[in-house]
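Let's sit down with a protein and look at its sequence and fold side by side. Go ahead whenever you are ready, and we will take it from there.
>
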Amino acid sequence: MNEPSIQSPHRGVALRLRRRRFDGPIVREIRAGLASIVAEVRRMVARVSLQCELSGIERQEKRAVREVHWLRHELTQQERNLDWLQIEYRARREVLTARLEQLVKVPQ
């Protein structure tokens, strides 16, 4: 049986003597089984952690690809707008230049 507790000089702390350790074949087998379960749980935790990191990388990569696609689309639209503006400005410039030439000509 267990030996009685020895009171510690510190309040609220009781020192206990070591209990006798059971080392029968059944207990050893149970300990080995628990150790393998603990090892499997650790492997599972590591696997889940790696899978979470991989899915995070996939998510970030998809977001980056989507953003680049959107930026390319925006660039194409802006280039079209620039082309249209250049055509408009050229036409206005021609009209204004023609008016200026008419004003500069001195009637004789």
